[in-house]
Write a structure and sequence with these properties.
With 72 residues, this protein is mostly helical. It has one domain. The chain is 90% helix and 0% strand. It has 3 helices and no strands. It is elongated. The relative contact order is 0.06.
Length: 72
């Protein structure tokens, strides 16, 4: 996968929106004095996203192996 394909998927608007959501949720957790809960939530969301990404990569690996086997 080339870098041009990766940059097409994530525009700067998406990155800015993600940062705004993270900062807003952090500010809300500071107001409620529950910073550890915020850290736990961010880590949980990150781990779920990482798990889904690994499953996606495995799916692509299976497709690539199938494509190679059809060519043989």
């Amino acid at each position: 996968m080339s870098t041009s394909q990766i940059s097409d998927r994530f525009s700067t608007h998406h990155v800015i929106a993600l940062l705004v959501v993270l900062l807003a949720s952090f500010a809300y957790s500071v107001l409620l004095a529950r910073i550890l809960l915020w850290v736990w939530a961010v880590v949980t969301v990150f781990s779920i996203m990482l798990s889904l990404f690994v499953v996606y990569l495995f799916y692509r690996l299976v497709l690539a192996v199938e494509r190679m086997s059809y060519r043989l």
